[in-house]
Design goal:
It is a single chain. This protein has 91 residues and is an alpha+beta fold. The chain has 2 helices and 7 strands; from the N terminus they run βββααββββ. The radius of gyration is 12 Å and the shape is globular. The N and C termini lie far apart (39 Å).
C-alpha cells in the first residue's frame, strides 16, 4: 500500500483525511490515477487539466522531490510514502 500524506490545506478535498492509502505502485502517475478514483477533487488540486503536476504543488516520494527524479514517471514502491505540499507564498 502506498501512503499519501495530505496537508491540512487540502484535506477538505480528501474527506478530512490526512493520510490516504492506495493499492497501486509503479509510478507517481499510477498512484495519482488510483487516487483519482476515490478522491477526484484532491487529484484536481494536484494535477492540471492536462494531467501534469500543478506548478504550485510539490510532491515528494519517500522524501525525494519528484520534479528532480522523473516527475510523474518517478518510481513509487509498494510501501512508499507520497507527500503533497502546496507552495506557500507571502510577503
Amino acid at each position: 500500500m502506498v501512503t499519501i500524506l495530505v496537508p491540512g490545506a487540502l484535506r477538505t478535498d480528501s474527506g478530512g483525511a490526512g493520510r490516504l492509502t492506495v493499492d497501486t505502485a509503479g509510478t507517481l502517475r499510477a498512484v495519482l490515477d488510483a487516487m483519482d478514483l476515490h478522491w477526484p477533487r484532491l487529484t484536481r488540486r494536484i494535477r492540471d487539466e492536462q494531467g501534469e503536476l500543478r506548478r504550485y504543488i510539490n510532491v515528494y516520494v519517500d522524501g525525494e522531490d519528484c520534479r528532480q527524479s522523473g516527475g510523474l514517471d518517478t518510481p513509487v514502491g509498494k510501501d512508499a510514502e507520497v507527500q503533497v505540499i502546496p507552495s506557500v507564498a507571502g510577503g
